[in-house]
Amino acid sequence: MAVEYTRASHREELQEILVLQKKNLPFQRSKNELEKEGFVTISHTLDLLKAMNEICPHIIAKDQGKVIGYALCMHPHFSKEIPILVPMFQKIRELLPADQTFIVMGQICIDKSYRGQGIFRGLYKAMKKYLDRSFELIVTEVDGRNKRSLNAHLACGFTIKKKYQSDGRDWYLIVL
Fold first, then answer.
1. Nearest to residue 144, comparing CAs of 174, 121, 114, 123?
2. Contact predicate 173/141, CB 8 Å
3. Contacts of 30 by beta carbon, 8 Å cutoff, 6+ apart
4. Which residue from 122, 117, 125, 172 is spatially nearest to 149, judged by alpha carbons?
5. pLDDT in tens, 107-162
6. How many domains is the chain partitioned into structurally?
7. Which domain holds residue 133?
8. Contact (CB, 8 A) for 23 and 15
9. Which of 71, 75, 101, 147 has the fewest beta carbons under 10 Å from its own?
10. Backbone angles phi, psi at 97, to 5 degrees
């Protein structure tokens, strides 16, 4: 397996992201799978994904030309586009100095057959490489029920900045 880490540049790649995303939404998975494999919270539209990509291209992992993983780049410009993320952006503004530059990793997902092979870490390594000169921090949040994701982020060097409740859930705001 020769995984290539790059930035999304074609509509087809964005469509492949959406296919992978749909497979990993909570309503597509059993309770056991949610606990064991994790999940993604948000379902994006192609238009929003494209708009986000135009400002800061998403990071993708490809194997033999197929998208097998992604880390979405969400510029703060999109802070009001997804209602469930509005509280996260409010917390970020409260916690970070006004002059601190950051990008939000809007969602990360790896195809089930590629998990446990370092792709999660590889996506963040590529994200840091591509965005290092533009942003001081990568910020994201993890649903407290998604233990697999939280543990994977902490293992990659993220630190918990704040735990808070919103939308009836515990959220961990984390930074790299």
1. 174
2. yes
3. none
4. 172
5. 999 999 999 999 999 999 999 999 988 999 999 999 998 898 999 999 999 999 99
6. 1
7. 4-175
8. no
9. 101
10. -60, 145
CATH number at residue 53: 3.40.630.30
User: Cα separation of 148 and 130, whole Å?
Assistant: 25
Q: What is the pLDDT of residues 17-70, one digit of tens each?
A: 999 999 988 776 677 776 777 788 888 999 999 999 999 999 999 999 999 999
pLDDT tens readout for residues 57-110: 999 999 999 999 999 999 999 999 998 889 899 999 999 999 999 999 999 999
Dig out the tokens for 23 from the structure.
């497979």
Three-state DSSP class for 17?
Answer: helix
Query: Given the structure tokens 């033999």, which residue do they identify?
Result: 64
Question: Phi/psi of residue 146, each to 5°?
Answer: -95, 70
